[in-house]
Design a protein that fits this description.
Layout lengths: L2 E3 L8 H5 L5 E3 L4 E3 L9 H5 L5 E3 L4
Antiparallel strand pairs: 1-4, 2-3
Length: 59
C-alpha cells in the first residue's frame, strides 16, 4: 500500500527530494508517487508542509 499525494499538494518538491527510492515525480498539477516503487517509509509525508501525503488505501 503506497503513500498517495492529495489535491492539497502545492508542488513544492520537498517530497521528491526526500524519497530514498525516487518514487516521486512531478505530475501535471501535483507530484505523484509510483506505487510500484514506494516502500512506505513515510519520509515524504514527514516533510510535506501542507500534509498532502498519506498512506494509501488497500484496494
Amino acid at each position: 500500500m503506497a503513500y498517495v499525494i492529495s489535491d492539497e499538494c502545492i508542488a513544492c518538491g520537498s517530497c521528491e527530494e526526500e524519497c530514498p527510492v525516487e518514487a516521486i515525480s512531478e505530475g501535471d498539477e501535483k507530484y505523484v508517487i509510483d506505487p510500484n516503487l514506494c516502500t512506505n517509509c513515510g519520509a515524504c509525508a514527514d516533510v510535506c508542509p501542507v500534509e498532502a501525503i498519506s498512506p494509501g488505501d488497500e484496494e
